[in-house]
Fold:
Amino acid sequence: MSGIILILFAMVMFFAAYRIYGGFLSRKFSVTDANETPAHTMYDGVDYCPAKSPVLLGHHFASIAGAGPIVGPIIAASFGWVPVYTWVLFGAVFIGGVHDYSAIIASIRHKGKSIGQLIETYMGLSGKKLFLVFSWATLILIIAVFTLIVSDTFYAIPSSGTSSILFIALAVGFGLSVYRLKASLWLSSVIGVTLLFFCIYLGNLFPLQLSKEIWIMILLAYIFIASVTPVWILLQPRDYLNSYFLYTLILGGVIGLIFTMPEIHLAPITNFSVDKLGYLFPALFVTVACGSISGFHAIVGSGTTSKQLDKESDAKIVGYGGMLIEGVLAILALLSVASLDQEHFLNLLNTKGAVPAFSTGVANFMHNIPFLGIEINPAINFAALAVSAFALTSLDTATRLARYTFQEFFEVKGKKEQNILVKNRFIATAITVAVGGALTLSGQSMAIWPVFGSANQLLAAVALLAITVWIANLKLNYLFTLIPMLFMFAVTFTALVSLFYSNIIKYNFTLSIISLLLFVLALMLAIQAYQVLRKNGKEEVFVN
Structure:
C-alpha cells in the first residue's frame, strides 16, 4: 500500500469530522458568539487577553504539539503500523478532539478557570485539591525533562540555540507591532515568518557554543520571565510564529509524499506484546498520546487558551481543529518510517531514536520535491530544529500552566482578598521554577519519566470525567464524553497496575509507589463522579 493513500484518507476523514462531528459538538454546547468570553469580561492584559483565531490556533497548537505526536507514533510502530494508524484516526476524532474542545468550552463557561474548578463546583473541594496537586506535580516533571531535552539539543546543535534566542526577540517585536502599533496581522505574519527562517540562517552562521549547565541556567531564567510576562508580548506571538515551522513541516512532508510515493514495508501487525512497551492494550494507547488524546491538552486548553479566546465560535477551530492537525502530524510521523522494513526500523529506533528517525524520513520526502531542490542534510537539520523549537514551546507553556495551578490551589472561593501566593505571580512562578530546576539538576527526572506516560493519559481521563459531570449537571446527554472517559480510565488503570507490578518485582519502589498513588487518586475521583452522576439520575440527563 502507498503511504500517500493513508495520509490523504486521513485528511479527508479529519475534514469531514471537523464539519460534521465538530458541528455536532458546537450544537451540544450551544456555542454562540453572543456570550462574551473571559478574555473580554476578565481582561487584565497579562493572562486574560483576546487573540485573533489564527494567532490563538498557532499558540495552542504549538503548546500541545511538542515532540509528542512525533515520538509516540514512531515508538508504537513496534506493534505494526495498522494499530497506530487506526488509533490516531479514530482517537483524534472521537476522543482527543472531544476532550480538547470540551475542555476549552467548559473553562470559558467557568471564568477561564482550569478543570480543577469544575471538579470543585460539581464534585467538591477535596477533589479539586487532589487534581491540582497531581497536575502541578506532572507539570513540574515536564519542566524538568523538557529543560534537559532542550539544553541537550542546544549543546549538541549550537546553531539551534542561537536561532531560538533570535526567535524570542523576533516574537517580542511581532507582539509589539500587532498589539501596540496595530499593524496588519497578515503583513506582520509575512514579515515575521520570513525573518523566522532568516533566523535559522543566522543561527548556522553564528552558533552559540555553551555548556549544558549554562544552557540549563539560561532556560530556567527564560521560563521564569516567560511565565510572568503578558501573553501578548511573548507567548502568543512566539508560539504563533513557531507554528509556521510545523505547518511547513507538515505541508512539505505531505507534498513530498506525493512525489516519493513510498510503499509501506513496516509490518501491519507484529506481536501483541513488545519488549520495553508491554502488551498492545494498554501500551499502544499510552505511548501514542498527543496524536490521539493527551491530558496535557486539557491543561493547556483550560489554562492559557481559554483566557485568550476572542469569541466562543473560535473554540472549534482552536480546540477540535488543533487536535485534528496534530493527528495529521502523527500520521506523517508514522509514514516517515513506514517505508522501512521492521528489522531496519527497529535498528534505527534503537540506535538513533525517534526524532532523528522522523527527521531523516521527512527530509527524504522533502528532498524528492523536484521544483524545490532541497538538499537532504539541510532538510534533516530543519526538521530537527522544528521539533526542538516545539520542545521549548512546551517548556515555557508548562511553566505558565504550573503557575496557574499553584495559584489556584491556594485560592479561597468567595474571598475578596486572597493571600500573596494567589495574588503575586512572581512568587508563584519562582517557587515553580525553583522546584522544577532542582529536579532538573538532581538527575532523577528521567528515571521516573516512564510512569508519566500513564499519568498524562490519566489527566485526560479525569478531565473527561469532570466535563461529563458538568454536562450531566446541565441535564444534557453526556454519552459523547462518558464513553471516551470510560475507555481512558480502562487504559490508565490497566497501565498503572502493570507499572506497579513490573516495578515491584524489580524492587523499584519509587515508581511502584507513584503508580499506586496515581491509581488511588483516579479511583477516588471516579467514585466521586459516579456518586454525582447517580444523584442526577438517568432520567434527568439522557435528554436532548
Remarks:
- The first strand starts at residue 273 and ends at 274.
- The radius of gyration is 22 Å.
- Residues 3-420 form one domain.
